[in-house]
Amino acid sequence: MELSIVMPCLNEARTLPICIRKALTFLRESGVDGEVIVADNGSTDGSIAIAEELGARVVHVPAKGYGAALSAGIYEAEGTFVIMGDSDDSYNFLGLQPFVDKLREGYDLVMGNRFLGGISKGAMPFSHRFIGNPMLSALGRRIYDHQVCGDFYCGLRGFRKAAILPLNIQSTGMEFALEMIIKSQLYQLTIAEVPTTLSVDGRDRKPHLKTYRDGWRSLRLYLLMSPRWTFGIPGLVTTSAGLAALAAAILGFIPPEWMGIAHVFSTVATVIGYQAILLAIFAKFIAIESSLHPPATKFWMLQNRGTLEQFVISGFVMTFGCTIIGIVARLWFKSPVEGALSLQLQAFLEIGLIIGGQTILAGFYFGLLYLLRERRLFPRKRRGD
């Protein structure tokens, strides 16, 4: 079988029939060998009976959520290609040929773009059409270096089942569609985009989508899926600002009355920034081990067994060096006034000692993570195997 058309459903008796009829008409008129699957999420309004009567195959999904329904429907699909679309009559299931053509050309994922195809008046709220969707799609393209898709939230999309299933998409809610496109980019799948339309849905009730809740969930997923932007870049900026403030104080560019504030800022900013950089590396390791990210990484320490020893030695050298510098500086000055270490030197030693301690602890944490990685890659056989 070439194509499975999957529709998530939760009490869509009003619009489900026309969606199924359009999908079946497309399959018949285009000559595509395919099926229509309704992934039902617990409908109580007769949607299941309607789908079966019209010739669709119903997949019962007890786990609640848009993503859970789609995951089950995709898993049960028998087609080489899958096209997913909402069952609220907002997408045109008669116009699926461009998706099929691109899939036949060899693309792994084919995204619809409603802004290119046309959005009917009233089909999308003003805040979604002109603010939320464009801004969040642009943010997604920037964070994940995505050059193709202009409409991250289009629910009508097609893909090769064999390419998408290994991505192990875990979101059970509305974030499912976002996780699909993010992981497709991270795993370097081939992606194309085709124009599609969006019509006013035929529901007689409010949509399941909630503007602020789902907008935040989108942003939250973006950040959680990108350790570089969540921890790494902020950490580098904060560390640089702290070190710049320390350098300015040492070189005498800061007035004496501001020296105390510069001391506090340089210490706090540098330490927090360094901690954020370490968290970026930790998060990248966890993302790889949990299949959120592909195994390839630029962080050598994630694949080096000797990272623990290297970090621990570096941390001890740093703390020992700062301790010696502090002792020598204290003994060097003779008078009580001179004997009090300057704020600049205090800040320098505090930063060195704290970062040294963090580096030692990070080394042991890397050792634990690498141990987990070894257990996954080289599991020991149980006795009797």
Write out the strand line-up for the largest beta sheet, numbering strands in chain order: 3-2-1-4-6-5-7
* Largest sheet entry: 7 strands, mixed
Helical fraction equals: 55-70%
Termini Cα gap: 39 Å
Rg calculated over all Cα atoms: 28 Å
Give the full name of the CATH homologous superfamily of the largest domain. Answer: Spore Coat Polysaccharide Biosynthesis Protein SpsA, Chain A
Count of DSSP helices?
Answer: 14
CATH topology term of the largest domain: Spore Coat Polysaccharide Biosynthesis Protein SpsA, Chain A
Q: What sequence of helices (H) and strands (E) makes up the elements?
A: EHEHEHEHEHHEHHEHHHHHH
Sheet/helix structural class: alpha/beta
Number of strands: 7
Give a written overview of the molecule.
The protein is built from 14 helices and 7 strands. It has 385 residues and is α/β, with parallel strands linked by helices. Helix 6 (126-144) runs parallel beside helix 9 (211-224) and helix 12 packs antiparallel against helix 14 (343-377). Helix content is 56%, strand content 9%. The relative contact order is 0.09. The chain is elongated, with a radius of gyration of 28 Å. Mean pLDDT is 87; it is low at 335-340. The chain has 2 domains: 3-224, Spore Coat Polysaccharide Biosynthesis Protein SpsA, Chain A; 227-372, no CATH class. Strands 3-2-1-4-6-5-7 form a 7-stranded mixed beta sheet, with helices on both faces.
